[in-house]
Design brief:
Pseudouridine synthase; eleven-stranded mixed β-sheet; two-stranded antiparallel ribbon; alpha+beta; 15 strands; single chain; 8 helices; 2 domains; globular; 240 residues
Length: 240
Amino acid sequence: MALIEFSPLDGGLLVDKPAGCTSHDVVDRIRRKFGIKKVGHCGTLDPNATGLLIIVLGRGTKLSEKLMGADKVYEGDIKFGEATDSYDCDGAITATLPVPPLTVEQLNESATAFIGDLQQVPPMVSAKKLAGVPLYKLARKGVEVVREPRLVHVYNFRFTTYTEPVGTFRLACTKGTYVRSVAHELGQKLGCGAHLLTLRRTDIGKFTVAAAAPLDQILALPVSELEKRVIPFLKLATGG
């Protein structure tokens, strides 16, 4: 059996995604800049979210499903007292309520209800598809449909600081977990409403954002330097 020969561009790139662009935008810009035919990503980040995005190149695209299935870690901020239709700061405010006196300890006590297995209903404003149509496209038309809940698991959810009305948190979870849904439901639990203000992904499996490069830096590299940043296929396959 012939051995497969991998090129220096068969593997993965760790990108620190900036706010304001979609995960697909990152894929498209890398594909066009370097002329690589096969480029994909391993787990969508919302446009305003930042942090770790694994970009797969060439034969590395065969590993996208495996990498998408890895556990994730996020850090971010939740604003209490305002609920939005998207559950994050991009949406329209649907309710404004007074925020009760809160402490980090009280927030962490409430957060324990979200640790473990959760049946989570995808938000209407999401990329989840129904009959091939993303839910956010239906939401833009004012259409709301019944969404089937799906099982996710939250390993850890803790707040580190709280300055009214914003709490900073860290959350570790399985793939497919909507962190903004957790923020929304926590606001409901506290009776004041809440939405996700900021979100940053720090880890995917064994890969960390500390080893990633900002997108603009990657796009400024010549191909010879880009090759040095590519995680080889076999190393990517074993999780680093």
